[in-house]
Design goal:
- With 165 residues, this protein is mainly α.
- It has a domain at 107-129 and 143-165.
- The protein contains four helices and five strands.
- The strands form two sheets. A three-stranded antiparallel sheet has the order 2-1-3, with no helix packed on it. Strands 4-5 form a two-stranded antiparallel sheet.
Length: 165
């Protein structure tokens, strides 16, 4: 079965998605900090070096002990931040990553089609009743018995189920 490349692709996509949600800022001592969470309250806007794309929305949070009606007050307008000088480069990288991802998805789909066709051909051969031989470790030809044939039929059906969607 060829599930390993598919799983690796899914894990890579999950990691890539989480890597884009990064914050970068200078703390009070001037050290550069990285996190998937926003900088501490009170960090000056000029010290925030990188925001994730989804950070432009302001979400109202009701502090403990405060009524929900206080939270329904209009949210403050977001402060416009200076344009990111690396925005063009980041956009190019995102487009390149999207193209790579699309090519990988195309390659995986093609591999699945090939696996599907091969498994269907094997199943036809196994169900046709012809005698099937294998070569053992010593290079001798041995005939497949009924138990082995049935095990191969089940294996081919499992491959068809997983690869022929």
């Amino acid at each position: 079965m060829r599930r390993k490349p598919f799983l690796l692709l899914m894990i890579g996509l999950a990691l890539a998605a989480s890597a884009q949600a990064q914050w970068k800022w200078k703390d009070a001592k001037g050290n550069v900090q990285y996190s998937d969470r926003p900088p501490p309250v009170g960090t000056p806007d000029k010290d925030i070096l990188l925001r994730p794309p989804s950070a432009s929305r302001i979400v109202g949070v009701v502090p403990a002990g405060q009524s929900a009606s206080a939270a329904s007050a209009p949210a403050p307008r977001p402060v416009a931040s200076a344009p990111n000088p690396d925005a063009a480069r980041q956009k190019q990288e995102q487009e390149r990553d999207a193209a790579k991802q699309k090519e990988e998805e195309r390659r995986v789909a093609e591999q699945r089609r090939e696996n599907c066709a091969r498994a269907q051909g094997n199943l036809r051969d196994l169900q046709s009743g012809i005698r099937i031989t294998r070569t053992n470790e010593q290079g001798e030809r041995i005939f497949m018995d009924d138990v082995q044939r049935q095990a191969e039929v089940e294996r081919a059906r499992q491959l068809i189920t997983s690869e022929c969607r």
